[in-house]
Amino acid sequence: MTMNPDKPHGSIWEETAARLAADCLREDASSEVVVIGGGLTGLSAALHLAKRGKAVTVIEAKTIGFGGSGRNNGQVIPTLAAVEPDAMIARHGEVGERFVNLVKDSANDLFDLVRKHKIDCDAEQTGWFQPSHSVDYLRLSEARVSAWQRLGAPAQMLDAAQSEALLGSKHWFGGMLNPTGGHVNPLKLVQGLAQVCEAAGVKIYENTPAKSVVRAGDGWQIKTPHGILSADAILLATNAYTDDVAPLIKQSIVPITAWQLATQPLTDQQRETVIPGRQAVSDTRGDLWYFRYDTQNRLITGSSLLIRVNAKPRLSHSVAKRLETAFPQLGKVAFTHVWSGNVGITQDFYPRFHQFGPNYWGFTGYNGRGLALTVPVGREMAALICGEPCALPMTEPQLIPAHGVTRHIARAALLRSRWRDHQPPKL
Fold first, then answer.
1. 203-214: per-residue pLDDT in tens?
2. Nearest to residue 64, comparing CAs of 33, 98, 32, 21?
3. Which residues pair with 261 in a beta bridge?
4. pTM value?
């Protein structure tokens, strides 16, 4: 477990990933494009830029996958967190529709990339299921299925009996199934993608934080501890791990701590009755109940905490109770790993895409649904940097008032989410 995002994850993923760290930047250098941040979106952009013949350098403050890209639950979900597709189109018009179609195809894009480059990341495209946690929320699930079907997504509505068969549980009431979703080992994915980038000619420097970004003539200079990088274009790809080098990003999101837990491996008998099809599952609660299998048949689950005091035992107890309630056949649940990481949350749960200056681009606010989006958003950022049309709705940064206070009280929003989970949803 980690309470400090500057230390290793302590995650189950760290026991299976094995990429050797690259050296840090030790002298002045130049590159056509510099990507700040060695997560999945930045690496996807770097790969697509390299395929276009661009000279690309990636700098990462810690190690590849150190941030959210390597810490998350690993669910590949082709939807947004709390924004419906029709609302995105209503806000952004034609580009909003293009972005919604990007979201619709995002899981396929990720799994296709994994297959094309033979990235060993325990990928299972077994589908993603969002069960309704109350009868009232069935209406929301039905509305979501209809909305995504109108856009051509293969979403399906399952009734209570079908939900029970898929989950091995009577706890839910039906819900939305999207067969394009699934799950991966996220740290192996991001480290494998880094290797693909290096093979394509991308230079990667780890333990190389950006200390400042300044305009220099027609280009940019990025100061690092041991050298200055000159660039024609920059992509800031740090999301929830953005520091003072980009205050417009840092102050437009609240970094919420998300916790992940791994159970002991299930027995063969338990495996046969708990999610037998190995789908990724996350329900309709605001305070999500979610889980998926890893290759050792552990359930990887998670939750949020209002207060961090004695976090590990309190979290283990409460999440164990969830699993024991949903799946009585598990008996007493115990966890072998507990870890945490930051999630970038915007005020309205919309993702943000920005231009900070000439040939200086950035994004933030995946709101907990970033894994599937990373590959296509990186591709679209590469198109943007190359002056091509893209499917990203560009907006001005929206700073959160009293940000320094807000980030410390934002965990209290969990109380509101838990209250709303017991109310009928607004359609």
1. 999 999 999 999
2. 21
3. 301, 338
4. 0.94
